[in-house]
Amino acid sequence: MLITHDTRCALDTVVDLVNTAPEDDTTPDGLADVAALENFVRSHEMSDVGALSEFDLSAVRQVRERFAAVFAADDARTAAGLINELVAAAGTTPRLTDHDGYDWHVHYFAPGASVADHLAADCGMALAFFVVAGERERLRRCEAPDCRRAFVDLSRNRSRRYCDSRTCGNRLHVAAYRARRKEAAG
Fold it and tell me: How far apart are CA 85 and CA 66, in angstroms?
């Protein structure tokens, strides 16, 4: 599956957005306030985003919940329905653009769209490409028991199980190794 630069950026953005949600009552919201949303927008180099407000923060949190539901969907039909709702509500307006040193690519959000509509349109279309390509199962949650972070499995053989092999994967492999050693020592 060919993944263009702008689709890859949108995938990274949607994963990071979903992962800002608190995992439980003890973890903080990664989008706790407008300043956090401004930082998110800046760090993902989102174009055509004006001044942000509490209204924008609330709308982005709602979009985040809907994207989380796409990652939790049991099948492609459910994921497609969720994506269709997101993209339609954003009022997508595909248009070619070349800005900030990037070659021609497609923006799906309308000029002047809110940050929530921007995210719903561009990120929703990136997820739609995965459903169309029959690759929805690549939209995953970490299999570590104490982590449910979202990620997109871009491995060649669709075998990635953890959000980060250096943290979650390594931690579980070390724990399994120690358990085997302890059992062998008897």
Answer: 9
Q: Are strands 95-97 and 105-107 parallel, antiparallel or unpaired?
A: antiparallel
What span, in angstroms and rounded, lies between the C-alpha atoms of 124 and 30? 20
Triad 96, 7, 131: Cα angle to 5°: 115
| pLDDT (tens place) for every residue of the chain, 186 residues total | 778 888 899 999 999 999 999 988 788 999 999 999 999 999 998 988 889 999 999 999 999 999 999 999 999 999 999 999 999 999 888 889 887 777 888 888 888 899 999 999 999 999 999 999 999 999 999 988 888 899 999 988 888 888 876 678 766 666 666 667 777 776
User: In CATH, what number does 5-139 get?
Assistant: 1.10.3300.10
- What is the DSSP code (8-state) at residue 16? H
